[in-house]
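Hi everyone, sorry if this is the wrong subforum. Our group has a chain we'd like a structural model of before ordering constructs, and none of us has done structure prediction before. Sequence below.
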Amino acid sequence: MRYHPLVDPQYDGMIFQTYAAELARRLRFASPPFRVVDVRPPDAYAGGHIPGAVSAASIEPSALVASAPGSRIEIFVVGRGPGDPEARAASLALLHAGAHRVVELTGGMLEWERDGLRLESGERAA
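Answer:
Right subforum, don't worry. Here is the predicted structure as tokens:
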């Protein structure tokens, strides 16, 4: 299997956490490859989500993992706010489906919006 040089396989199978500012930076410099999954209800997602995010309601964890080039991407999981149990459940489901690296946004959409970061609205296909 070929690895992206910036995705260290030593940390595979772990759930990491990061802040909104780091995800915003990654959106500007998309290397190594990553996806953003919003686990909030579809109406909340449609009302405003992180640019490029897909709704967890529109894609199964195994399909998301399989869609990755070489199945080697980081998957950022975004919930409602700090400690969102749906975000952790989604993170665990992604690991179970074979994701190599899962990163939870610690403050969820509450932090993203509080920091005044850009939103997209409407539906987005997986």
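For your construct planning: The chain has one domain: 9-114. The beta strands are 14-18, 34-38, 54-55, 74-78, 101-105.
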